[in-house]
Specification:
Blueprint: H1 2-14, E1 17-25, H2 30-44, E2 50-57, E3 64-71, H3 74-81, H4 84-93, E4 97-106
Antiparallel strand pairs: 1-3, 1-4, 2-3
């Protein structure tokens, strides 16, 4: 039914979006990477729709980090992806990254 499909699409627009981004930095760039990440976290937390943006360092693997994010809506997450501070972070982090970042996005089930 087309009405049900439209209803589901509208509900998805207003549901919170959870994101976990996994990052691995080269050991010889850790100090600079952490400084970049601190700036990214600080600026992102000011964004409209950002409910959580936490940087976690893996306690067993040096240079491994994950960002735990919670956004009000998919639209807020999209706006985040084109902010100057995220674009600057991506550009500056390229030479420091050891492997490609993994990003998981989803909605809370229960």
């Amino acid at each position: 039914n087309i009405d049900f499909t439209i209803f589901v699409i509208e509900i998805l627009k207003i549901m919170n979006i959870h994101v976990v981004a996994l990052m691995k930095f080269k050991e010889n760039h850790l100090f600079d990477a952490i400084e970049l990440l601190k700036k990214l976290v600080s600026e992102t937390r000011k964004e409209e729709g950002c409910l959580q943006y936490d940087l976690i360092e893996d306690k067993e693997n040096k240079g491994h980090f994950f960002m735990v994010e919670l956004w009000e809506t998919e639209e807020h997450l999209h706006k985040h992806s084109v902010q100057d501070h995220i674009l600057e972070f991506r550009k500056n982090a390229i030479p420091m990254v050891e492997s490609q970042n993994l990003v998981y996005k989803g909605m809370k089930i229960f």
